[in-house]
Amino acid sequence: MTADPARTPRNETSARSEPSQETRTSGRDETPLERADRNFAELLQELRVTQTGVQILFAFLLTLAFTQRFPSLDTVQRATYVVTLLLSVLAAALFTAPAALHRSLFQRHAKATIVQVSSRLATVGLCVLMLALTGSVLLVVDVVLGRGAGIAAGAGTLAVCVALWGLLPWLVRRRLSSSAAPGPGQGPER
Known about the structure:
Largest sheet: none
Oligomer: single chain
Radius of gyration: 23 Å
Mean pLDDT: 83
Number of helices: 5
Order of helices and strands: HHHHH
Structural class: mainly alpha
Shape: flat
Low-confidence stretches: 1-17
């Protein structure tokens, strides 16, 4: 029995139509708009985690310039500081851009596009954050233990981030794609 359309609440995010083949095979009973809403909500949760880290890093870097030891930094350390500070600002901008994009395109029926662009912004933001974390570790260890130790610590930080944020997801995707093919009604999660 079909629900009476006059009694079914409808809005942009919950409008139901006949499920498409993609909806039926995705393993979820949701329309493309509902999928876009869910994906955007999940992305925002991820951005909340990263944004907090970026804010803490940025605040730390801002306070460094006002410490007593800052004037004694050499040219390389000052350059590392400035580049790292700018990278952390860029990361913060990239991680907040999805909210601005959503706000500027609100109620223009562009949720799927917003999700796609926001996901790309978050990916670039993670790459920039990786460089900002590397620069921060390089600077602090350079000041505390010397240039060689700073370079080693920075390289280690970069390697750990590449491994956890790039290599690990790639390996998991590869393992999932090489496992048994999805059964009927099961498809990739979106």
